[in-house]
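queue> pop job 88
queue> type: inverse folding (structure -> sequence)
queue> payload:
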């Protein structure tokens, strides 16, 4: 089914669900009196569009399902006649009743020609045709900002639930090991988009259980992480730090029968030196070194300030004068994990894990804490939030910036205007 047809049917479903059609003096296509008592409940899975509808045809009340199409003949095109899931359809609603539709037993399915104000479709089409950053950009000024603010909570919960789905999948892959899953997703985020994939591969190649055995030695942690990253294979000779790491990894590599990743996966180009994967790997080693049972500690922490302190780590002393192995930097500086980076890790890893763990363990306090942390964290700074700001939508916290990211990525980008409070308001404006 093409995108245009999907959107046309979504529009008709929206009209039906919100009772925006002409409901007075209704008749079926064969002249029977029709009353819509209950339009039913929208079905978001396969099968008829609405379940448990209640209608009255002449003197008989029917309870069952409703199917809606642009053209009645779409019933045949979609092969519903051979799908038992459609046997309980009590009313076929179409904008164009171009064909009679029958049940398998030969009975004709009652049909309704859907009529509604033409302005609804005109308004919706205007949104679909828009080429602006968001479909309603040129009409956005008509909307009371409070409508958007009221939707933030729903959008934020949706975003957390999307992230929850990814965590659950990874948990299943890791045999429900929370510590391993948290470590892998934390490592991925240490890549900050550009190096997220090699960081994830590194974590998967080096289980947290092995690192935990050496957490008392920062040097050994670095040897394991740098060794499995492949970054110790690029040069045969180097400075003392580089050679000592290689020698230590050579021993640990044999002990645990490790298999590392290829060094060419790491990206250095167009990155600020402070974001080089070498620096980030050392910072990750420092976090593991200073944190006993990292995920367990995070669950216990109730204060955002205390949580942030947990992530206040810095690369080992060698990196004060280096950004890459065996190359002394002109500038000497401590490579700390910055405040923005810490906030990013908390927003994208810690908070989703608190939320899903609270959900799985029936601990509402953890779910509530995750939302409270978001409200306390400053708004994110990125191009999407900046553009919302130019439209007069100011984000005052990470809670609101996450909601705005969800709105843009999951609704505006996909032209899901009929599922958005702003879009619905504009479509209904007659």
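queue> result:
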């Amino acid at each position: 089914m093409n995108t245009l047809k999907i959107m046309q049917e979504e529009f008709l479903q929206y009209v039906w669900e919100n009772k925006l059609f002409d409901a007075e003096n209704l008749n079926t296509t064969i002249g029977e009196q029709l009353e819509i008592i209950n339009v039913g409940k929208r079905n978001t899975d396969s099968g008829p569009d609405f379940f448990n509808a209640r209608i009255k045809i002449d003197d008989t009340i029917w309870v069952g399902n409703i199917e809606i199409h642009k053209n009645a003949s779409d019933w045949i095109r979609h092969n519903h006649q051979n799908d038992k899931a459609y046997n309980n359809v009590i009313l076929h609603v179409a904008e164009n009743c171009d064909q009679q539709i029958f049940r398998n037993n030969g009975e004709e399915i009652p049909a309704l020609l859907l009529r509604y104000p033409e302005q609804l479709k005109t308004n919706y089409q205007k949104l679909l045709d828009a080429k602006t950053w968001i479909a309603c950009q040129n009409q956005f000024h008509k909307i009371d900002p409070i409508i958007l603010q009221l939707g933030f909570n729903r959008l934020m919960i949706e975003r957390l639930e999307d992230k929850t789905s990814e965590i659950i999948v990874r948990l299943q892959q890791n045999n429900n090991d929370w510590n391993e899953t948290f470590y892998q997703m934390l490592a991925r985020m240490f890549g900050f988009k550009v190096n997220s994939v090699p960081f994830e591969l590194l974590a998967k190649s080096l289980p947290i259980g092995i690192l935990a055995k050496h957490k008392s030695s920062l040097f050994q942690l670095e040897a394991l992480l740098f060794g499995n990253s492949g970054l110790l294979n690029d040069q045969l000779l180097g400075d003392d730090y580089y050679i000592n790491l290689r020698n230590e990894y050579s021993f640990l590599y044999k002990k645990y029968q490790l298999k590392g990743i290829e060094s060419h996966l790491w990206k250095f180009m167009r990155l600020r030196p402070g974001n080089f994967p070498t620096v980030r790997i050392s910072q990750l080693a420092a976090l593991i070194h200073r944190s006993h049972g990292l995920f367990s500690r995070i669950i216990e922490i109730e204060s955002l300030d205390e949580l942030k302190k947990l992530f206040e780590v810095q690369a080992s002393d060698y990196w004060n004068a280096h950004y890459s192995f065996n190359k002394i930097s002109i500038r000497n500086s401590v490579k700390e994990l910055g405040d923005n980076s810490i906030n990013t890790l908390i927003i994208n890893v810690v908070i989703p894990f608190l939320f899903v763990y609270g959900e799985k363990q029936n601990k509402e306090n953890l779910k509530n804490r995750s939302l409270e942390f978001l409200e306390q964290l400053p708004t994110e700074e990125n191009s999407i939030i900046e553009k919302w700001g130019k439209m007069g939508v100011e984000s005052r916290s990470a809670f609101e910036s996450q909601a705005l990211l969800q709105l843009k990525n999951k609704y505006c980008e996909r032209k899901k205007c009929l599922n958005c409070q702003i879009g619905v308001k504009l479509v209904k404006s007659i």
